[in-house]
Amino acid sequence: MNSETSEEVWLRERPRLFGVAYHITGSVADAEDAVSEAWLRFDASQDVQHPQSWLATVTARLALDIVRSPERSRVDYVGPWLPEVAHPGLGPEDSALAKLELDRAFVRILQELSPVDRVLFVLAEAYGVKAAELASVAGLTPAAARQRLSRARRQLAQTAELPRSADAATLSMLVSSLNDGDLTALTDLLSEGAVLWTDSGGLTKAARRPIFGSDKVSRFIAGIVGKYGLGRLEVCHALGGPVLLVHSADQVRAITVEMSGGEITGLQIQQNQHKIRIRQATSLRPGPLPAAADEHRQRKARGKQPPT
């Protein structure tokens, strides 16, 4: 190792290692466990020649062990599984985490890959880890690692334009309109193929299958609002982008709005209370509607389709 101390290397690499583990596990708590164990192993190791890649591969292997463990198995999970929603932290050691290029929309998509393919993709894309080292992490031959990585990339490429979590300006606009009773501010932005997922973990009443299509999603939202009301809405900072926090009569819901091309393509409704860890909710002031979303709303109001 160079002249840097192990503590200096760790502080520099910790945010990226957390990103690796969070993309693999979709859980803040599990990511923290993997990163903490990686530190213990790193601190106990002697003369690590390439600490950056060493830490990345060890963290990924630990994250893989976590998602493979029986207690983390999603085989018996009731209903859709969605990423945890958590505040990035309040301490100075967590300040770098808030700047990570994490995105809950992408984390959700990654969960569609098998755990092994997820690890291969994250290490290859984030750290440029080569096939031989990927094979060692996943317990594969280099040829098998290359084949599985190629398959993972093809699977993700099937989505023409990967969605991103809506930014604070878009969510603030929605909050302002919804607080005025204008539900169409949300439903008019839905793409034709929009999908809504609800994660309750079987702990509360919820749709146990995804809802497909703008019409069905609109009716589902209208039904929820009709039954429980809109409640108190606020836009909160969270890992992976801002989140819409809805305080309804029955419970708190954290909604991640996925967007692509100015349209809402997905709504992640997290209502498993064990997976909502917003320690400090910061309401953001409404901002202007981003140009792409504004243009889409105007086209829809005129009954025109987007250009092909």
Provide structural commentary:
The protein is α+β, with helices and mostly antiparallel strands. It folds into two domains: 6-73 and 113-157, Butyryl-CoA Dehydrogenase, subunit A, domain 3; 164-279, Nuclear Transport Factor 2, Chain: A. The chain has eleven helices and nine strands. Strands 2, 3, 4, 5, 6, 7 and 8 form a seven-stranded mixed beta sheet that branches. A two-stranded parallel ribbon has the order 1-9. A hairpin with a 2-residue loop joins β7 (252-260) and β8. α6 crosses α7 (142-157). Residues 280-293 and 304-308 have low confidence and may be disordered.
What's the helix and strand layout?
Blueprint (H helix, E strand, L loop, with lengths): L5 H20 L2 H17 L6 H18 L16 E2 L17 H7 L4 H13 L3 H8 L3 H16 L6 E2 L2 H12 L4 H4 L2 E10 L11 E2 L1 H15 L3 E5 L6 E5 L4 E9 L2 E8 L5 E2 L13 H12 L6
Helix pairs in contact: 1-2, 1-3, 1-5, 2-3, 3-5, 3-6, 5-6, 5-7, 6-7
Shape: elongated
**Fraction of residues in helix:** 40-55%
CATH class of the largest domain: Alpha Beta
Q: Low-confidence stretches at least 5 residues in length (pLDDT < 50)?
A: 280-293, 304-308
Give the biggest sheet. 7 strands, mixed
How many domains? The number is 2
Order of helices and strands: HHHEHHHHEHHEEHEEEEEH
Kindly identify the CATH topology of the largest domain. Answer: Nuclear Transport Factor 2, Chain: A
Family: Belongs to the sigma-70 factor family. ECF subfamily.
Pfam families: Sigma70_r2, Sigma70_r4_2
Domain RNA polymerase sigma-70 region: 12-69
Keywords: DNA-binding, Sigma factor, Transcription, Transcription regulation
